[in-house]
Design a protein that fits this description.
The strands form 6 sheets. Strands 15, 16, 17, 20, 21, 22, 23, 24, 25, 26 and 29 form an 11-stranded antiparallel sheet that branches. The chain has 5 domains: 321 residues, no CATH class; 85 residues, no CATH class; 144 residues, no CATH class; 41 residues, no CATH class; 237 residues, no CATH class. The protein has 1016 residues and is of the alpha+beta class. Helices cover 35% and strands 16% of the residues. The structure holds zinc ion. The site of zinc ion has 7 residues, from loops.
Amino acid sequence: NSFGLYRQYPNNPTHNPDDTIGLQDLADGTAPKAINETQPSSISRLSVIPDDCTSIAQSYFPFRNSTIFGLMNWMWTGSAMKSICEMKNLIDFLKSDKFKKEDLDNFDIRSETSKFDKYLDNPSAFHSKQSPQPKASSPKDGWHESEVRILVPDLKPHKKEDVPTFTVPGLLHRSIVEIIKATFSDPASRFFHYTPFKSFWRSNIEGSQSEQGQRIYDELYTCDAMFSAHEELQKQPSEPGCTLERVVVGMMLWSDSTHLASFGTASLWPIYLYFGNQSKYLRGKPKAGACHHLAYLPKLPSNFWDFYFALTGDGPPEEVLTHCRRELMHAVWALLLDTEFMHAYEHGIVIECPDGVFRRFYPRIFTYSADYPEKILLATIRNFGLCPCPRCLISKDKIPDVGKVYDDHRRNTTSRIDSTARNFDINTARRFIYENGEGVKSAAVERVLRDKSFVPTTNAFSSLLHFGFNLFQMLVPDFMHEFELGVWKALFTHLVRIIVSEGKIQEFNKRYRQIPTFGRSTIRKFSQNASGMKKLAARNYEDLLQCAIPVFDGLLDPEHDKAILSLLFTIAEWHALGKLRMHTDLTLGWLHECTGNLGTQLRRFQSYTCSFFDTRELPSEEAARRQKAKKTPSSSRKGKIPTRKTNQDPPSIIGPELKTPKAPPKKKLFNLIMIKLHSLGDYVNTIKLFGTSDSYSTQPGELEHRRVKKYYARTNKNCATRQITRLERREHILLSRTQSTIGQEKQTGFSIERAGSKRRKSESLPYTPPEYHHHISTSRNFPLHIQNLLDSTTDDDPAIKDFYPRLQEHLLARILHPTWSGDGNEYSDEERSKVFFINERLYRHKVMRINYTTYDVRLGQDSVNARNHADIMVLSSSDKDHPFEYGRIISIFHVDVVIKLDKAVVSPTPVSKEVLWVRWYKRDSSYDAGFKKKRLHRLQFFPCNDPAAFGFLDPDEVIRAVHLIPAFRFGKTSNLFSEESLGRAPGEFEDWKYFYVNIFVDRDMYMRFAGGGIGH
Ligand SMILES: [Zn+2]
């Protein structure tokens, strides 16, 4: 297509879901929220099921009519709070012709809900009563409740048969096969990819180094793992007598334990299932119903302690508890990977797809996202043992080598592979424990398992071993926990310690507070006290990283300042690359290189830079340590044996009376032996296999947690988990019903209010269609007489010097030479005098929205206004060394203009022209910046008497908004011009001397500067 993208399929695809995707569908991430919430834009009108009347009537099933369906839908989906948005939805529904008052006869919310629940519990019975329907359309993927058994080690020898078992009740789960059946036959699955492909990109720009096409990595179905799984599947002998197309079901699993409420201990441990056949952009939308709740894991119940006590006469030691938790996890998975699933894995399941074609589907597990503690639980390796990595056999002390060449090599040669030999070892160890009565960590067990840090638990995923499944490969690195909340958080914390030790913390916090916001929520306002790091989520750490360079700039003495700025630049670049949503061979090369740089700089930082500072615990860390020290002795009283490392302080019992002699905070050093650091080296390979990191980051799972919490808020907290399953089913079915009926409805235009506008009279800009380059209101509500504007300021305000003639000139150039852009074209006074402004007025506007194509060929949108998001970038016309020019918008307005020329009237009717009045920045070319120098580009305003300082700009030329951060180090200056001016915000008399261009503010910005963005 026009971006130079093309695809290579292994065989002819029978179904290409992307044919039906319109511009609307690409606009997800940045589309105004209101739209996402009212309607999932994923529904295209082009490919709905044939809408004969029966299907409409059926689609409300099991409800009698559209009225009841609508009411139930409102009741059981969306937010449980009485929010304005929810009320608006209800009113919209009541007004629509789907609502009929007479339908409400005999309607009772309780009985209707219980009827609905009954239907969900046993839909097939329900169906046969009401209307005969094909089996495929009745969902059987409801919840089941089961119990699982685990073997308990009690240090006594047993015969194989009578090892003590403990039963854990209350496992709520659904059948994987039924979920697959329901999902792939659902009309919403018409956007699923059945055939994986490789996509390539050939740059349109001449002279770029990518002459031959570059491989693109983004979705699971464009990457190697699914591609080879597909090819392997086609090579297999087909099922006897079966000629159906064979399709890989790309399973992507998530699990993470979550707290359900801010207070109390209520928690839930869900396993989510997503399908990689679906685009990650759809998967990311909470309303798309793409997330399937597979199970809610039980915890070890409290009567386990009694059970163990009865067995041994003692409480269970920590190692037994750990062991039993592991056993439990794998017992659950063994139950989920049931015989039905195994059969489907081998022989496939036949499903009728929404296009009416029968296909044979083979489930395959590709990724399992979890945080590190859960990963080691799944990998059945020990927590931070000798070989702490779930993917390879690197030893702990080699972790800081990340990014070195032989480190990459070692990852490949020692990668963990599940094998029969491994399982044999584990069975041996289990015999020692259960039949010989050895301890879980006894010498006999250690001898077998210690080398590779395994634990004596049979891994449930090993049951897929004979199909060639390697369970260790699925444990993908997790961007959010491992980088944003891992490596970066650790580095940031240590940098804060350094700043504290230098006594610069006030200045540091002040700088963070002054950083302007950007975008809808790209950079949020920083808290009063950034160094306190209170209540920060991953996205807050992301913001801290993206804005770090100007903050740290110049705080330390020059030598360390230099090193730290370079380190911050590299880590920000790594963050941008690691989080790209579309990679090419080129960008993966950069990521690889950047990993190497980052490793080198981190090692130097730790061994050299850090040694100059006396870094101490931060107040919060100190408090946490004291808290811990207070807690530990009390918990040991409960019979647990506290395992204490020797290098720690003895537990001093700090009562309230002992608080007075406060010890100085402990010394803290920067530690590179973090498993999270090690996993940075795995990104390049993982992206090649499974697609970009956003596709399996734990972030979407965290979003899903919000839904679970919302459910929890609606339960009466008694048997909450079971009630949550009910609510989950209700909403899921209703959402999918809505999706299948929605295609028949017309999409109406939505108007959104500009978010965060506090002024009453502010104009609200309606929804910006993605086809436009930019959007400025056409209202004439804020007229301004040009002469009044000129009179209102002092004569020597440089901002309005020559305002009138220059505006005339600007418009003349635009109207007479529409293809030629830029100013500098000189017109004579006489020519200028032919430009007339109707009523001598400008019509001012507050906002302009700019649509742009992002690097991953999707639509982005920026909103700029003169008040707080005023900085924009345009393509540079004069500067050879730098691709962009930057300006600050003083005002957005349009004028109605007429031009009268001598011979003919060029524009007899007035034309409306939109104009941006801009104060220009110039690049500080004396400052070496860019990727090689690892510095951000520096800008300053033009001196006020420079004719280039102010100017007018055609909004068509704006590329997008830009995030400029003041260079705090250099302070403010009033040299440019001292009086109050229209060129500045009211009440301000100074400008920052310099600004930095924040190229890391989002991935799209980074790719604009780095080059190689496909959509650019
Ligand atoms: Zn590893």
